[in-house]
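Whiteboard transcription, Tuesday session. T.W. wrote the structure tokens on the left side:
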């Protein structure tokens, strides 16, 4: 028995290392891609929108790919996913290929990343067992957040000292990222040998369409719009108009992650205290406020009416961080779905459908956003997002307070 406990502890320790290194690798690659596109390829706002097609398409395809690999264990598929990430980001670390070829490797890297995301939780929960699931999953999240912050520190130091550069022949930041994925690749093989029974989760494609979930679908579609505008074009205002480098965005990311350590648990307590209806109102109003003010700032920066230093820039930084807090309120949508679920078994397939809708909308929105920026100016992207966020207010008004509160 003692030998078995030691074995379990060893496996879980290795998996904590996998979570940590994956977060570190993503922080050194995925989180700095916008600066890479600007520095290495001098892309326009329109091209930046086009790039999101190969980056987001895997989010739509991954459900079907994993279902097609259902004969394999979760760990085997996770190993394949890491191999894709290694190839995708590793090649970009050693060469600067033509733009079209670069998009292929961006797709390969993104496919690996999206394949590993759902498997990360399923493998983690299988290794935890049935006791202290919440505590262990919280620990996983804490480790990932900590190493995301660490990656931000490394990005800041690396670019500030000149060790990292996207204009040099070798992009050491991507090489280091690929190296961490190689270590994860090896650790997954070790776990595969240590566990006696293969871990296999249900990979069946099972989307659920019910009229009872129509407001959840609307929230998911709106989230796809909001996420893509702020994750793509929010940083692009800082990078393209204000000429901010990766070290600046890294500092903002560190601050956002640090606040998130306290903010995420607070959201859970607020849901319990105030109910989902009020939190949905807060979520909608936060998006409207952030996008409207960010639109005004971007118009001022683009026209020269606002200085590229001082209070306006600090305000843009603050809104950038506030928006990162808003993106962490996704659990409200999940809990809302749970509260209205006709059948408990509907929750997982409906979440899967929501994920697909999210990515499809993101692809379309990124492309259209690039056109709007190029033809009329950056501010109109954010004004449009603020206007569309009124839909979130409408949905919040339709939520039945008593039903949701009871379910929570």
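and on the right, the sequence the group agreed on:
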């Amino acid at each position: 028995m003692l030998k078995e406990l030691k074995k379990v502890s060893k496996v879980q320790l290795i998996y904590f290392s996998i979570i940590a290194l994956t977060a570190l690798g993503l922080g050194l690659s995925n989180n700095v891609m916008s600066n890479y596109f600007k520095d290495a390829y001098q892309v326009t706002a329109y091209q930046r929108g086009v790039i999101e097609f190969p980056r987001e398409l895997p989010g739509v395809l991954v459900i079907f790919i994993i279902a097609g690999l259902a004969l394999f264990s979760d760990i085997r598929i996770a190993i394949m996913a890491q191999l894709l990430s290694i190839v995708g980001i590793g090649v970009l670390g050693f060469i600067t290929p033509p733009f079209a070829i670069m998009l292929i490797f961006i797709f390969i890297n993104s496919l690996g990343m999206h394949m590993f995301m759902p498997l990360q939780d399923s493998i983690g929960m299988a290794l935890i067992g049935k006791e202290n699931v919440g505590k262990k999953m919280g620990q996983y999240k804490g480790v990932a957040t900590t190493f995301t912050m660490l990656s931000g520190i490394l990005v800041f130091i690396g670019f500030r000292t000149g060790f990292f550069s996207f204009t040099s022949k070798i992009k050491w930041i991507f090489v280091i990222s690929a190296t961490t994925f190689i270590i994860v690749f090896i650790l997954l093989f070790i776990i595969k040998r240590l566990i006696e029974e293969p871990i296999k989760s249900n990979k069946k494609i099972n989307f659920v369409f019910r009229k009872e979930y129509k407001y959840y679908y609307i929230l998911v579609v709106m989230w796809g719009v909001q996420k893509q505008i702020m994750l793509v074009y929010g940083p692009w205002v800082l990078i393209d108009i204000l000429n901010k480098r990766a070290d600046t965005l890294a500092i903002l990311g560190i601050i956002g992650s640090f606040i998130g350590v306290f903010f995420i648990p607070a959201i859970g307590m607020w849901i319990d205290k105030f109910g989902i209806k009020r939190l949905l109102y807060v979520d909608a109003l936060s998006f409207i406020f952030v996008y409207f003010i960010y639109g005004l700032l971007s118009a001022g920066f683009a026209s020269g009416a606002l200085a590229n230093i001082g209070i306006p820039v600090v305000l843009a930084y603050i809104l950038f961080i506030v928006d990162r807090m808003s993106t962490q309120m996704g659990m409200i949508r999940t809990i809302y779905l749970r509260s209205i679920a006709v059948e408990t078994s509907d929750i997982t397939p409906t979440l899967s459908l929501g994920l697909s809708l999210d990515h499809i909308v993101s692809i379309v929105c990124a492309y259209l956003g690039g056109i709007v920026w190029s033809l009329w100016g950056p501010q109109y992207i954010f004004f449009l997002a603020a206007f569309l966020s009124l839909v979130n207010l409408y949905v919040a008004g339709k939520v039945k307070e008593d039903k949701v509160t009871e379910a929570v």
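Someone added at the bottom: Residues 1-8, 402-408 have pLDDT under 50 and may be disordered.
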